[in-house]
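Open question from group meeting: does this chain pack into something compact, or does most of it stay loose? Before anyone orders reagents, we agreed to write out a predicted structure and look at it together. Recording both the input and the output here so the notebook holds the full record.
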Amino acid sequence: MLGNGFDLQCGLKTRFEDFMQPRIARVKKMEDILSSSEDLPLITVRGPDGHELHGNNLSYLLWEKDLTVWDFILLEDKQKRAWYDVEECIKDWVNYSSPSASSKPHLRQICDTFGKPDKDHWPDLQGPIKADQCVLAYATDFYRWDGQYSTLLDILSDQLRYFEGSFAAYILDQITFNNRYASYVDTLIGCLANDEMPEQVLDINYTKGRYSASSKSTNILDFNYTDPVKLMWENSPTCLNVHGLARENDIIFGIDGTNVNPEQESYANIVKFTKTYRIMALNNVPHRSLVRPYLSSDPDNATSTIKFFGHSLAEADYSYFQAIFDEVSLYESNTRLIFYYNRKRPDGGNAKEEMFEKVNHLITTYGQTLDNKDHGKNLLHKLLLEGRLIIKQVPLNSREVYIAND
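Structure tokens returned:
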């Protein structure tokens, strides 16, 4: 299983902070233009429906510069979190339990205040730009909002597709301008696949353009938007990009749908923001093809080793881990788990200690889902006693592999 740390290790600037920096600069430039001029020229843009629209206010200037409402929502959200948490931010804006909840989401506040057909009562967008003002301006200038909460949710969903498209283009640029990325990827994939295995399971032959050794025994669940394997090569490992691919422009930013209440208002519109709903639309390899299940009649056929590198092990992705652990029957089988950490962190923290804490939380949380509660309580202890849980530094045995933050 690969997370964003894999692409960072291979030299790509794929932190969300890196993506947002030039967009923030664009926002500040637009605000400077606004403050230095009373009147904006007439701007022609193409709206969401493809038709031309004309205007001379700030919303048209922002739209022309490919800025979405999510740029302003995330920028404002970061000021209270101190980092970009895309999933939590989306959840805060679109998901809530009931209209009478003590803390109403931003969209509900906008609807309660401005959800009237008389646009003369709606304020013009001005700088410094606030997220709710931008949402209102875009909704009325480009989408002809009818004042309804469900419609506003659909507008934010459409804007999220634009925002994802910009991120996909950014990722593709990162790959294009890093001419050693492909070789870094191949080297690191080989290191990870072969580490802690009794024999070589993956070998990359550049001359013949193929994977050799037992490459079909190596499957990859990739949480990134990049391609870690060369699919045109002979005998390539199976790879599932669970959240889409940048080159297909189908990447996903979404929320965990576990706690989305089907009884709440506009559920049909809210559920479109969940990862599960979005993934259903992608034509990808099913999870089962990546994992050989545990069968009591043939216990040795289950997937022997599951390796994690570069993944934050955040709770938002626990559903994926649970599905795979269930498939291999983690308690009963002989499946090993190997968690790799990088030798250093950008903030100077202790990477090994942090990985210990994350793994402990993951396994303990998964244990709570087991039907046999006693098994759940001692799962971590059992894995350690049986030598089936390994936490170690990532095996960088080639100078060709990029060392992040060196």
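Observations to bring back to the group:
The radius of gyration is 24 Å.
The CA atoms of residues 336 and 388 lie 4 Å apart.
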